[in-house]
Amino acid sequence: xxxxxxxxxxxxxxxxxxxxxxxxxxxxxxxxxxxxxxxxxxxxxxxxxxxxxxxxxxxxxxxxxxxxxxxxxxxxxxx
Length: 79
Known about the structure:
Elements: E1 8-9, E2 26-27, E3 31-39, E4 43-50, E5 55-62, H1 64-69, H2 71-78
Parallel strand pairs: 1-2
Antiparallel strand pairs: 2-3, 3-4, 4-5
């Protein structure tokens, strides 16, 4: 594995910086990022392997900077 695949990000503890998102990164001991599927104005979507379920899932990461400056954005995301 390359250096990126050995990186680990603790999920739910602090905001994940966009620069930390890369192929092979582990999120909260449950998800391994596989590839970026898309990027929009408020978020990015990644294909990930759910390690407990042994299945591929999609994970959406909301931009912390945008969410902090636009509180209504979180409400839209949660819908």
